[in-house]
C-alpha cells in the first residue's frame, strides 16, 4: 500500500535507519483497540517510511518485564507505552533512556507535560462517567449524580482500586477538582473520600479490564460506570447507545519510553519522533478517540467530522463538542491526574481503600 501524502512527507524527513540488525523494532503497548490503532497509525507507516521493521507486542503495563530485561541486559523490547506513574517510577529506577528535550523535534507543539526526562507523550486518555442513553430517561451530569441512587437507581461499575475512585468520591462530595489532591493528601480528606465510597458500596460492581464497562452498560447490568473514554467511543462506533460525561473526568498522558540498553535506541528515538508528529497523531486519533499531544492534530481532528451537540454543550459554546480528551473544552473541565502524588502515596492508599471496602 503506498504511503498517503502526510506520511510520504514524513518519510522524507526520516534518515535511512535500516541496519544489519536482524530483529525488528519492538514496541510494547496495552493491546486491544489501542494496539490496533497503533498498528495502523504508527507501526506500519513508520516501517514504510524508515524501512525499519516495527512490530507491536501486548503487555499489561507492569514494569516487571522491563526490570528483568534491564537487570539481565537482555533487552527484547525497545519502546514501551507507559502510564505517567510508571514513567515516573521507571525513570527513578533507571529503566529508561533519557530524552534531551532540545532534540525532541516538536517540543514546542506538544501539550504541556508531554516531554519528560524519560518519556515523550504518546496520547491523552481520560477516565470518564459513562452511561447508556437508551436506558436512562434523565442523563447524569456529574459525579454527584453517579452517587445519587435515588434519582438514578441501579448498580454502578467502578475500576477496582483506589486510583481515580478517591478523586471521584471527593468531587462527588462537592470538592472542586482544583482542590482534590491537596485535600486527599490529608488524613481528613482521605477519610472523607473513603466515607463517600462506603455510601456507594452496596451499589458497586467492580471492573478490572477496560473492555468491561461498555459490556456492562450495554447489557443493562449497571446504569453508570467509570470507563476509559476510548473504549466508550469504540463501542459507540459499533452502534452502542452510550454517552460520556466530561465534567470532572480525570485525564492522563501515556508516554513513549525507550528501554535502557536497547540495541536499537537510535531507531527507537526515530520511532518516537515519528509517532509524535501531527500526521501520525491525527491518524491515531481517527482510529481511537484518545487525544493527540500535538496541537496541530488536536485542531485538525474535528475537520470534516459530524459534530453532535447536546444541551449540556449549549451551556458554554466555547466548549466545542468533541470526544477527544485533549480537546480544549474537555481539558478545561477535567482533572489532570497527579502521578507524583500516586507514586508517593499509592501503596498506602490502596491498602486503606481495600481495608475500607472489604
From TrEMBL:
It comes from the Bacteria. Keywords: Signal. Residues 1-18 form the signal peptide. The keyword Signal applies. CDD domains: PBP2_polyamine_RpCGA009 (cd13589). InterPro entries: SBP. Transmembrane segments: none annotated. It holds the Pfam family SBP_bac_8. This is Bacterial extracellular solute-binding protein.
Amino acid at each position: 500500500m503506498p504511503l498517503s501524502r502526510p506520511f510520504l512527507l514524513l518519510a522524507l524527513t526520516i534518515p535511512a535507519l535500516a541496519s544489519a540488525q536482524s530483529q525488528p523494532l519492538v514496541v510494547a503497548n496495552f493491546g486491544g483497540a489501542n494496539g490496533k490503532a497503533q498498528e495502523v497509525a504508527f507501526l506500519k507507516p513508520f516501517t514504510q517510511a524508515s524501512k525499519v521493521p516495527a512490530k507491536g507486542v501486548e503487555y499489561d503495563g507492569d514494569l516487571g518485564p522491563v526490570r528483568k530485561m534491564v537487570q539481565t541486559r537482555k533487552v527484547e523490547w525497545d519502546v514501551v507505552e507507559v502510564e505517567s506513574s510508571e514513567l515516573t517510577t521507571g525513570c527513578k529506577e533507571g529503566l529508561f533512556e533519557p530524552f534531551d528535550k532540545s532534540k525532541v523535534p516538536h517540543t514546542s507543539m506538544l501539550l504541556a507535560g508531554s516531554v519528560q526526562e524519560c518519556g515523550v507523550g504518546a496520547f491523552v486518555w481520560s477516565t470518564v462517567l459513562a452511561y447508556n442513553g437508551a436506558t436512562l430517561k434523565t442523563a447524569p451530569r456529574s459525579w454527584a449524580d453517579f452517587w445519587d441512587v435515588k434519582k438514578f437507581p441501579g448498580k454502578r461499575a467502578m475500576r477496582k482500586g483506589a486510583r481515580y475512585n478517591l478523586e471521584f468520591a471527593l468531587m462527588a462530595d462537592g470538592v472542586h477538582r482544583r482542590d482534590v489532591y491537596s485535600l486527599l493528601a490529608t488524613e481528613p480528606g482521605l477519610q472523607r473520600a473513603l466515607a463517600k465510597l462506603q455510601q456507594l458500596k452496596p451499589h458497586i460492581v467492580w471492573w478490572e479490564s477496560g473492555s468491561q464497562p461498555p459490556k456492562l452498560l450495554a447489557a443493562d447490568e449497571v446504569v453508570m460506570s467509570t470507563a476509559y473514554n476510548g473504549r466508550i467511543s469504540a463501542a459507540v462506533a459499533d452502534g452502542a447507545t452510550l454517552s460520556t460525561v466530561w465534567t470532572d473526568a480525570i485525564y492522563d498522558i501515556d508516554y513513549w519510553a525507550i528501554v535502557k540498553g536497547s540495541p536499537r535506541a537510535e531507531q527507537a528515538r526515530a520511532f518516537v519522533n515519528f509517532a509524535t508528529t501531527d500526521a501520525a497523531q491525527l491518524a491515531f486519533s481517527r482510529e481511537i478517540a484518545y487525544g493527540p499531544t500535538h496541537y496541530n492534530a488536536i485542531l485538525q481532528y474535528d475537520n470534516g467530522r459530524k459534530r453532535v451537540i447536546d444541551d449540556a454543550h449549549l451551556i458554554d459554546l466555547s466548549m466545542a463538542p468533541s470526544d477527544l480528551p485533549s480537546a480544549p473544552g474537555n481539558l478545561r473541565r477535567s482533572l489532570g491526574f497527579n502521578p507524583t502524588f500516586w507514586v508517593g502515596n499509592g501503596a498506602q492508599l490502596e491498602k486503606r481503600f481495600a481495608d475500607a471496602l472489604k
